[in-house]
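Researcher: First entry.
Model:
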Amino acid sequence: MAARRADLVRPDRNVRHDGHREGWRDRCDPGAVPVVVRPCSAEDFVRLLHDSHPGRLAHHRGRYALQGRGEGIYLLAVDGDRVLGRVTVTRWSKYPRVCAVLGGGAEMNALTADPPGRGVGSTLIAAAEEVALSWGANTIGLAVDTDNAGAHRLYRRRGYADWGRGTVVDEWAETDADGYVLVAHRDRCWYLTKRLPGVASPP
């Protein structure tokens, strides 16, 4: 099933001190999963550690720590007590070559949605873009594995385009519950960027 576009309904919520909103509620087409997207709270973090596979614990700890340092936001898509998706939004790229070429700009990474194809991923992307705008970013970027054609199509539909400078290498590791590396990965990825709404294109 193709991913369905989700429009965001902004509830009457205060804007937090770091500029992003406390939550985004999703208004979807029939059949899409209704979710609220919010930054990972301390309670959410405890639940993630309790419910996740041991190999994911280091990932959650790293993302939550990054948020605590003010370097980004760990967004969760939730339906009640269930976490149906997540994405990390950072204030700058994790790839040195991207930083060198593009300079500033926010970045999304590690987006997951379950169930897929039901609007959760699109809702997370829209919320991530709103976070980037609140930071004053002109663009937002992301890396997509060259073997992940489905994700590539999703981002293309949402206005992302190849940055035109070849691929980047995403280095990440599978770990055990204690954070020891079991398998190190080096994935070749396309790098896509999007000019954010309301930001004029360069002449």
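Researcher: Second entry.
Model:
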Amino acid sequence: MSAPVIKTTTSTTADDGDVVTIRGTSVVGNPFTYIGPVDETSKACGKGRRNYDNGGVYEGDFENGDMNGHGTYTYADRAVYVGEWVADQREGHGTMTCADGHVYVGEWVADQRDYDMGRWTCCSCWTVA
């Protein structure tokens, strides 16, 4: 369940810091709409939101057009990741709460859970360290 990455975007030219709407497509083919500020090259920056046509939503920090910094991604299946992002990938500390109640809290490397540096709680009934 990796976060989508920008493949293409289209927008009108905007001044640094303007709030704009940008249409784009992720590498896995999911179209999205970005709403938020842009930098001098019209790339997403600062606090913004991506609404994916498949139902996923990311709200948080952007830099150079990518999800970078802290943010929340709500997946179409209602799973939620809250944590750090680098270049559109989960990276650093974060919490994934699955739709079925399973929760992973810990470190992420290259968009994958680092099981040596995290903890699963399964449906709040038992914990795997």
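Model: Note on the second entry: The chain has one domain: 6-128.
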